[in-house]
Amino acid sequence: MPLRERAPAKVNLTLHVLGRRDDGYHDLDSLTAFAGCAADALTLEPAAPFGLTVDGPFARPAGDGDDNLVLKAARALAARVDGLALGGFALTKRIPVAAGLGGGSADAAAALRLLAQLNGLANDDPRLLDAAAEAGSDVPVCLRSRAARMTGRGEVVTPVEIAPTPAVLMNPLRPAPTAEVFRALGLAPGETRDGDAPPDDVAAWIARGRNDLEAAAVRIAPEIAAGLLMLASQTGCRTARMSGSGATVFGLFGSPQEARRAARALAKAAPAWWVRSTMLR
Ligand SMILES: C[C@@](CO)(OP(=O)(O)O)[C@H](O)COP(=O)(O)OP(=O)(O)OC[C@H]1O[C@@H](n2ccc(N)nc2=O)[C@H](O)[C@@H]1O
Ligand SMILES: Nc1ncnc2c1ncn2[C@@H]1O[C@H](COP(=O)(O)OP(=O)(O)O)[C@@H](O)[C@H]1O
């Protein structure tokens, strides 16, 4: 029987960029949450040879080659754990790719959880955390897949309690490559910006927050501005913002019914977009 894990989409409720480091990465401060029903599915068959098959609506852009983050994460863990038992992975790809939803990172984290289960490793085993950080900046926060404050390059993860938050996610199905968006932000190496301590109240943290990558991402994918306008003008959402490096935008609502109603209206108004209503936690 294969082992199974869900790999839920990540949403950056806030994303503040605090500076560009000399190693080319940016220091971030982000309140991050996870979608209840926008997720990839990953299985691991211990008896099968090491490898990966991919199916689902976004199988092609994700690819099943060596650069898939599932295999990259598995190799990063195998390099740290002598005699690590592996197996055959099968991924069903339902999260749009290069969308600011951390789909590849969620898959990498799910692969690490499956390997931890197979090999009897604890969730807080430092080798698991190191392998996650090597696989990508967003992978550490995806290991737990519950709301957290993410700082540093992404590797410093502090759990945050948030009330389950009804949301609509919408993506124009145009990729917004993360590195390109950070480049478009145009910070010089070593340049820093002041960061504020977030308010204790999570609702205020979200309401007063922002996504510093929004303007840079709009220059690369102008549809983002149209999505934000649709959310703000047509749905009555409390907050409309971009997730990660885009191009996914999200609206936050007072109730799941309002979110579902808005998702139906948006899917009709923008039939070429991927639209989902979900709870963020
Ligand atoms: C922006 C965020 C916010 O959660 O999300 P996405 O838009 O990818 O979902 C993440 O920081 C993305 O994390 P991840 O997608 O894992 O990025 P990585 O593979 O580590 O890095 C890809 C590239 O993005 C840039 N990068 C990434 C993270 C970071 N803190 N600073 C950066 O400058 C670098 O140019 C790097 O080469
Ligand atoms: N399992 C995977 N799912 C999606 N993309 C993947 C995966 N493995 C590698 N990639 C590559 O990683 C890049 C970022 O993908 P993704 O995680 O979807 O971006 P984002 O974090 O912006 O949503 C893409 O260029 C894609 O080709």
TrEMBL record:
Keyword Thylakoid: no
One of the Pfam families matching this protein, by short name: GHMP_kinases_N
Record InterPro entries: GHMP_kinase_C_dom, GHMP_kinase_C_sf, GHMP_kinase_N_dom, IspE, Ribosomal_Su5_D2-typ_SF, Ribsml_uS5_D2-typ_fold_subgr
UniProt keyword annotations, A-Z: ATP-binding, Isoprene biosynthesis, Kinase, Nucleotide-binding, Transferase
SUPFAM superfamilies assigned: GHMP Kinase, C-terminal domain, Ribosomal protein S5 domain 2-like
GO biological process, one term: terpenoid biosynthetic process
Domain GHMP kinase N-terminal: 68-144
Top EC category: transferase
EC number annotated for this UniProt entry: 2.7.1.148
Catalytic activity from the UniProt record: 4-CDP-2-C-methyl-D-erythritol + ATP = 4-CDP-2-C-methyl-D-erythritol 2-phosphate + ADP + H(+)
Residues the record marks as active site: 10, 138
Coiled coil: none
GO MF term set: 4-(cytidine 5'-diphospho)-2-C-methyl-D-erythritol kinase activity; ATP binding
Protein residues bound to ATP: 96-106
Pathway terms, separated by semicolons: Isoprenoid biosynthesis; isopentenyl diphosphate biosynthesis via DXP pathway; isopentenyl diphosphate from 1-deoxy-D-xylulose 5-phosphate: step 3/6
Domain GHMP kinase C-terminal residues, every copy: 211-270
Family (UniProt): Belongs to the GHMP kinase family. IspE subfamily.
Function in brief: Catalyzes the phosphorylation of the position 2 hydroxy group of 4-diphosphocytidyl-2C-methyl-D-erythritol.
Entries under PANTHER family matching the protein: 4-DIPHOSPHOCYTIDYL-2-C-METHYL-D-ERYTHRITOL KINASE, CHLOROPLASTIC
Official protein name in the record: 4-diphosphocytidyl-2-C-methyl-D-erythritol kinase
Species of the source: Methylopila capsulata
Gene behind the chain: ispE
